[in-house]
């Protein structure tokens, strides 16, 4: 069967291959086709969200630089003047070439883990206090 292009509209028609997963079957009606397309869109959305939810490397697995660890420590204690002095001296020494970023090294994972446990402990204490106030 040959179809000739006798139409006068400007629409560009494209050929759909027979082995295409999205092609319709001959016995399929419009509601079934729409449902199939909707299910395929939902599947694609689920697959896309799963790749976002499962990162390849957790933040806790990335080693933290010593200067970042120290800065975070000072921020947590509210020592902003000490933090400003440290950062000024740290970056001044790096700029002069006295030390390099690599000289600082990384913090052993146990210290980072202790910080995470302390944060979790504080959160649980707040939850317990809120529970006691509600009861």
From TrEMBL:
Region of interest: Disordered: 1-24
GO cellular component: axonemal central apparatus
GO BP: axoneme assembly
Residue ranges the record marks as coiled coil: none
Protein name, UniProt field: Sperm-associated antigen 16 protein
Provenance organism: Acanthisitta chloris
